[in-house]
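Materials and Methods. Structural model of adenylate kinase. The 228-residue sequence of adenylate kinase from Drosophila virilis was retrieved and submitted for structure prediction as follows.
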Amino acid sequence: MLFMCHQMAMKKEAQEKLKAEQLRRAQAVSDIPIIWILGGPGCGKGTQCAKIVEKYGFTHLSSGDLLREEVASGSDKGRQLQEIMTSGGLVPNAEVLSLLNAAVTRTKGSSKGFLIDGYPREKNQGIEFEQKIAPADLALYFDCSEDTMLKRILARANAAEVKRADDNEETIRSRLQTFKRNTSAILELYAEKTLTINAERDVDDIFMEVVEVIDCVLQKKERAAKVC
Ligand code: AP5
Ligand code: MG
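The predicted structure was written out as tokens:
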């Protein structure tokens, strides 16, 4: 009996420690904006992120780029990831979240804000991110037709010196299916913090709308910091 009580107390203590650690982590990262960048393959996530980085100096973390770095390392894990990516499916979230978490932890001391590009791709990814890393302030969803996305990726592939392994028509169609299957649930769950942007326009016109909303988020953060 005494032993059981002791075990329960230890378990409670461990749970409380974990909760305190999660809260500490969330508070440290939440001082700066965290923006999820959503949209189908080729909608222009990376293009807009590059412009945001140029203007605001935020840290750009693309889940696809982090995964491709792991693939390029030539590890066994990298080979398994490559297989999933060239099939157009989703890599298990444990892998993606651990890469994102490591990158956030590495850079948060000097970061002015985070752009989490290509994440979440299904709603549980969002839930786990907010539990384990920090709540997102905003999600930007770049809305684009499948036809345009397909054309943009094929054009990118044609122009590239080194073509991405998943930039071929068969894989692009599978990436589009994966995107279609999962996205409405994300948009529903995070409706309150999502802004949908028409991505079928000129890069600079899209960016003007992006700037308006990021300025708004920054002002909100500043006001919240003053109140605290
Ligand atoms: P990822 O690398 O994220 O690929 P993606 O989502 O398919 O998107 P892309 O990077 O191809 O396109 P983009 O939206 O960035 O567009 P870009 O700006 O380059 O993911 C790859 C794979 O990794 C996934 O399929 C999955 O397997 C795995 N993965 C990644 N994240 C994951 C996660 N969270 N969970 C599980 N698995 C995950 O633009 C495309 C082209 O269009 C460029 O040439 C650009 O110049 C041009 N362009 C851009 N904007 C415009 C415009 N407005 N007008 C005209 N041209 C434009
Ligand atoms: Mg990209």
